[in-house]
UniProtKB/TrEMBL annotation:
Entry protein name: Nitroreductase family protein
Entries under Gene3D superfamilies matching the protein: NADH Oxidase
Nitroreductase domain ranges (all copies): 12-188
Keywords: Oxidoreductase
Family label: Belongs to the nitroreductase family.
Recorded GO MF terms: oxidoreductase activity
Key word Oxidoreductase present: yes
Organism the protein comes from: Psychrobacillus glaciei
């Protein structure tokens, strides 16, 4: 946690969606890697971690992404664009993930074999749409975690779902199993973000 913020609650309240970034500000690859490492501690369905990340820092590439993202200026001025991509064939990683848990001592051999069997029975046989929904849900979890981590370090972000996902996939020659879900602009704000209100809890929550 940075010296600027003293609690998670403060970070949550201070994080806003910034759309004007300082184009001269740079964030190192090492720091972005560290933030992603923390963000991926987020939970995921059966711990299959169906998220992949493409970090775009090259200026010409950022300009190209802006062309099929409704000309949003933050795509070009942010220090980096982090594309969060869903793996709809996350089941290919079942053995690697669960055996790593076994090696780390988080689970015993009997239970790991049971979990591997259950995952291999359910995920490969699930419809593609269901697997995409799982990947999209998990991408939301890791994306929010990443944005809070960035804010804790004094950086700013804005998530964007408004881009041509088909064009993005074609431009970066993504395999069909990989689906771009959200772009996160990461950098240093050049102007304050607009504030926004939220519906009262009494209107959206029910205790039963």
């Amino acid at each position: 946690m940075s010296e600027k913020y003293t609690s998670l609650s403060e970070i949550i309240h201070e994080r806003k969606s910034v759309r004007k970034f300082d184009p001269s500000f740079e964030i190192s690859r090492e720091e972005i890697t560290a933030m992603l490492s923390e963000a991926t501690l987020a939970p995921s369905s059966s711990n299959l971690q169906p998220w992949r990340f493409m970090i775009i820092q090259d200026q010409d590439t950022k300009k190209k992404v802006r062309e099929y993202s409704f000309n949003q200026a933050q795509l070009e001025t942010a220090s980096a664009i982090i594309a969060v991509i869903g793996d709809t064939e996350m089941y290919h990683n079942i053995d690697e993930i669960y055996n790593a848990n076994l090696e780390a001592g988080y689970i015993d051999k009997v239970n790991v074999e049971l979990q591997i069997q259950n995952a291999k029975t359910s995920y490969p046989n699930a419809p593609v749409e269901a697997r995409l929904n799982i990947a999209a849900f998990d991408a939301g979890l890791v994306s929010m975690q990443l944005m809070l981590i960035a804010k804790a370090k004094g950086y700013d972000t804005v998530p964007m779902g408004g881009f041509d996902k088909k064009q993005f996939a074609e431009a970066f020659e993504l395999e069909s199993r990989y689906v771009p879900l959200v772009l996160i602009a990461l950098g240093k704000a050049a102007a304050p973000a607009y504030g926004s209100t939220r519906l009262p809890i009494e209107k959206i929550a029910t205790f039963v």
